[in-house]
Structures are given as structure tokens and as C-alpha cells.
Specification:
One of its GO terms (molecular function) is carbohydrate binding. This protein is α+β, with helices and mostly antiparallel strands. The protein contains 14 helices and 45 strands.
Length: 704
Amino acid sequence: MPESDFHPCCSSRQGDLLMSPHRLLIPLVVLALLMTGATPAVAAVARVWTADSWKRVFQTDQRPAGASTSINWDAARNEAESYQILLRHTASFTITGVTFSALTGSAGSIPAGNLEYKFQNHHAPEGGQLFPDPLGNERSTTVAANRTQGIWVTVNVPAGQAAGTYTGSVDVATSTGAIAVPMRLTVYPIDAPNAIDSKYIYSTWNVFFNEYADLDGSVVADEIVDRYRFPRYSAQWWKLMEDFAKEQKATRQNQVHISIDPLLDGPTTLVGDTYHFDWSKFDQFVELFIRHGSVARLRGNPLLNALHTDQVWIIDNVDGQHKVTLAPVGSAKADRWLDQYLPALKAHLDAKGWSDIWYQTISDEPKEDKLDNYNWAVGKYRQYFGADAKTQDAVIGLFPELAGNLSVWIPLIDKLQENEQFYRDRQAAGDEVWTYVCLQPDARLGWLNRWSNYPAYTARQLAWGNFKYGATGFFHWGYNAWTAGQFGNVEEFPGDGYIVYPDLANGTVRTSVRSLATRDGNEEYELLSILKRRDPAAAQRLADALMRGYDNFTDDTDLMARTRKELLLRAAGTALPPRVEAEDGRLTGTGRLDTVGNGYTGSGYVGWLDQASGSSVTVDVTAARPGPQVVEIRYSNGTDTTNTLTLLVNGAVPRKVEFLPTGDWNTTWSSAYATVDLAAGANTITLRHDADDGSVDPDSLTLW
């Protein structure tokens, strides 16, 4: 790809994404609208279309000309994949339900129970524009006139499912009639590992108990009690914890943060100078997440306060009440706590069989001038847990002083990119290196992040960047830190403090498009890792196709879809699709076979289309399945401008395709991508030079 196809995701003001609009909302090309019961009532739902999971669709977006109306998934086994159904009408209507058929094929079937749906919800983190991020749990919804309503449909492909093609239908019942949307799933002969068995760790700082201030240990918020009004450890509270655990498993979050509160609530007491530890609530909490299969690791509450790294978190008797508070490093209270808590914790983890999955946080984002405190605390921890006991922390600076005491380094993505060799050396020494985002680096300056006012694929691409740079995990501050994240107010860092949303009406949690995007990226990381074992160069090339850096990534959603398809094929060891040579197509006007230059495929390429308006080349392609597919057009453009050609599928629905400069003519080649809607079997694709098009020489076409 030419360098100009990669650019930062930046904006001139918060919330405005400086990207090519045609990249963000690329229309899908024509597929006939399939509806059940062709009655006037059904026809009244005038706008129905579909979009893949890479696309972001706003309430104000209208159905693009020639949009697809079918769902087409490509997936590995043991993978979840999502797709969007979009509905829009000139009058208000109600979606009363969504049901699925089983997906069936010659190799077997996938039960309807493996499919699920959620309605697209919206929020306004800047106090104005609504952004499509929350996903609701409601089973029906009323849609206002001239508003687009999305339905996210997810298939959970069973592990070991036979490879092949499966088809079915999703039926959307509305107050104006029923709509049937065809579903097609291609399963590839490769299995994504369970997140609990993965070597790639995804973790967030969850706030299921109290969130404390760093300076004085005061309580900032108890998100569950404050918002839901569920008393801690009530039946409602535990049910909500189960819902959190299910959401985390579904999105491949496989490390859970353990607050100090369950130990306090045991209750743990201090009598004189002796602690009496009660692990009952601690165990209930940990066992719930383990039972739901969402835990590969447990992250221990920090021993020291974050940022300041000068006080120890302790349980103390304050005015006759036991509370979580802070004591200065080196104080009698701090030593009393650590010298009793740490050996008791080790003995308990050993008894429960959890020691091997326990990773201790020492001081989140340790303060640069207090690293001696950090290393002292590690020494205290390892005094009781052993010399090889594992520690992990997010770090916002480059701290060689922590070498040997920090087992899992979690730098901000910009710091990893800037100091790649340092972290490669830490990995060579046996440490782990993950990545981190928390407020920074600033998405407005072009860095990937998970802000809710940016396209969700930016969250997805973090995993591709982690693979590129060799990071083996990802950590983010906010899982449900709604108060600290300013949820419900104008947010300086939209969505940074949370990746899920409260659902107070139903007493549960809403997942988000960003959370699903993170899941998808994590699954693709696994597939890249599988491919790397067979062909390291191919895996790296695919990662590089989307990522030049955490601040230098493509916004071409067609390229993303094409790259994922190639990843599935290569990871599964399946043959790549054939290339169709443009010069073998039917030429009209001034178009002709040309062989000047080098590096072209086949016997040459098509030149001279720009010499007369209407000149074209038409090639025959065969689609194994109907529906949207990405066509890759290999080309040369020796001008210094981005030029276009007009693309037609089966002679209909003309659209423009952009071709970036390649630097010279017919010695340097690149690829452009477009989503095309095809019929099963024979199709034609035409590239035509119209009066408003520029100079481009097509070389070949490939369907992905």
C-alpha cells in the first residue's frame, strides 16, 4: 500500500474524526431485499440493509444506494462474529421481536441458540451528538420516524464445528410486517483457543466494589450500590456479578481485578495488633468468575497507592470501624499489615489452588521519584511469595530501575512504540510485555484508543498493533468506572472510563460495540499467532497491512475485511482465491493490453483507458456464495493525485473506486479495495473510465 493510504485517526476538535467519509461508511452493493409476505404493510418498512462489524452507522444515516440485505460471516471455529441489520422508515414503527432459524449445511448444523441479537443504543459523551456504542438488552424497541435502528446479530461458532457453508434466516417482526434477512456463514477448519487457555491476556480495571482516592484513601464511588441501589452481597448484587462475568467471557476478557473490599467485608478484623482474616466474601467473588469460565489470571489489588507510590493500602480500625485506608511506607501500620496480610494471602491462595494464576499489582503507574518504594514493596511481597512471584503494573515512563522486580510490563502504546527494543529485551529476559491505554495517548492526536466517539475498529486494531509489536496482553483502566469516567456528563475523554454501560431498568449490564470490537481483535490476534507458527513472514505482512504503528493505521474498512479473510484462509491452510487478470477481460474504447514496465502479473495489464470516455475492461468472476465480498484491484497510478474509475457489477449500480498514487507508472503496483454484492456463480465486474475519472492501469482482480 502506498504510504498515503495510512494516516492517523485525528481531529481538529474532540469528537470529529478526520477520516475519509467514504472509508467510514462505504455503501454495500446491491442484493435484492428479501421480505416474507409481500403485502403493503411489509413494503411500508421502506429501508432495510445490512453492514458488517467494521462499519459505524449513525441514527441519521440513510440506506446507501445498492446496499446489501443479507448477513455474510466468515469465521473460525470457536469464534464469535457479528453483523448489523439496519432499519429505517419515514414513520415511527416498533420492532416486536427477532428470531433465528438454525444455520444448516451439508456438513451439519448450528443451533438457533448459538445466535443472539442486541439493539443498537446510543449515548452523547460530548453532551450533543449521539454515538452508536451501547448495545441494549431490550427484546423490542420503538423506532422514531426517519431514524436508523441497528440490530447487532452475533453467531457463536462451536469449537470443532465442521468446516463448510451454513445458511439460515433471521426474522425481524415489526408493527408494519415481517422481514426475513438471509444469513450465510462460512466456517474455516481452524479453531480459536478459549480465552481461558490463551497466552494473550485482556484485562480492565473493574469497579465492582469501592473506588478509592489515591491521596487519602477516601471512597470515590461504589458503582453498584450508588447506581443500582443493590446492597452489596444481596441476591441482586450477585446476579449482577454473574452478568459481568458472562459479559467478560463473551468478549474474551480473561483476567479479573480483585479489590481489597471482599477481604474487608469477610469481615477481616484487627484486634490489638493482630489481624483475623476472613476470606469468605473473597472466595465467593473469585469462585463466581472462575465458575463462569472467564478467568485465566487473578490480578491482586495494588499494595501501594498509584501515581504517588508512597503509601500502603491497609485495613485498619478507624474510630471503631474497620476500613480500607492508607499508611505511609515504612510506618508501623504499613509493616504490621504487610507482614500479616501477605503470608495469610499466600497460604490461602495455596489452599485454593490459585497461587499460579495470581499476579500482584504493586503500584499502578508508579511514580518516577518513588521507584525505591516500588522495589521495596516487591521485596516484601517476594519475601512471602517466593523469588519468582509474578508482579504486573501499568507504567507511563521508561523505568529500567524496575528490571527484575516487574514481571509484566504494561506500557502505554506510544511508549512501547517509541521504546520497542527496551521491551523486546525485557521479553528476552523472560518478562511479559502488554500494552495500555488510559486517557492517553490522546486519540485526538492520532493514537489508537477505545474512545466511544471514534469508530469501534480503532479498538479492534489495538490487537493487530499488539501482534505487530509482540505484546502479549492488553490492559485498560475503565471497565465500569462510570463515575470517574464522567458517564452521564460531558466527558473530556469519551468512554475512556468504561467499556460497558449500566442497565438500571433490567438490573444488568449493557455491553458495547467497542467491547465486541475488542473481542474481534483478540480473536484475530489468536489467528495471527496460529499463522505465525506456520509462516511468520505472512503473519507479519498481514499485520503490517493494517498497522504501520499505533498512530499510523488504515481507515479502509474494505482492506480490513479483505485482510481478515486472507488471515482466515492462511491460518486454516486453505487455498487463496484465484487472481483474475484484467488484460484477459473484454476491452472497449481505447483500452488495450500493455506490457511496458515490470512487476505486473499475468501477460500484462490494461492501459490507455483514459484516452476516451467510456473505455472499459470487463472481467468474469465466479462467486462461491451470494452477497457482499471484497474485490482487490491491483493497479498502477503514476500521477501525483488520487484518481478514480467507475466500477459496475453485472452492469448495474455504478460507483467510484479511488486509486491512490503509486509513485510511478507500471513498475510500482498497489491495491484498491471495494465491497461488491455478487450473485452465486457467474458475475461480471467492469472498470470504466468516465469523463470525471482519472488515469489508472488495472492489472488484476481478486475476490476475497
